Fold MerR family transcriptional regulator.
Amino acid sequence: MTEWAIKDLAKATGLTSRALRHYEHIGLLHPSRVASNGYRFYGDAEVARLYRILSLRALELPLPTIRRALDDQTTLADAIEGHLALLEERRERITEQITDVRRVRDAVRKGRTMPIEDVFSGVDDSRYEKEVRTRWGDAAWERSAKRRAEMSGEQRADDDRRSRDVNAALRAAADDGEAPDSSRFQELIAVHHRWVTEQWGGKAPNRAAYTGLAEMYVADERFAAVYGGEANAATIRDAIRIWTDAHLA
């Protein structure tokens, strides 16, 4: 059996020895043996496992999730095959983005107007990463990113359509002058809260997070534009506050 010292494995992967020791500490990757002098060595099985760890980390999955997903019996060939499948799925997504961006470019060149959602349809979701991590923490981003990464291209398209429908319905209610406490608005907010829960990887926003999101709709002109401007966003924020008072402790 071929084996590698921890320093050689660190050099080959770009990880530090400290990171490899951290992986060992949390039960993610153990060395095949530890010499009497404390030096750690890794064999073929451990290298295969590390390959899978790094390919899953590229999808920004949290380490505890990776640990649960791993199978110690996976060979290096199987790990590479799984990584290849992930890369091919990512390539399909990139191809879809190229198509979207070309469509937007052609529309802009011809002077056609487009909904703001369509303009940004070809932009990768990672543009929101820093903001989400700052406002709601690393776990929130990682849950959301994992959810999107596990979708097929068709599922992502359906997810995007649902997002547009949910937000378009809120905008329409505000455009129509609906009162924030009307039954129509409150029913739409219930749908919106379920949609946010889905987008956040199944973790429902609590009272503080949901009202904070509503405030951001008004304060951030990018989000306000989705709802037709700051006045509409303020109406939607008020509707969210009313629904929150009634349904979230």
User: Anything to note?
Assistant: The first helix runs from residue 6 to 13. Strands lie at 4-5, 33-34, 40-42. DSSP finds 13 helices and three strands in the chain.
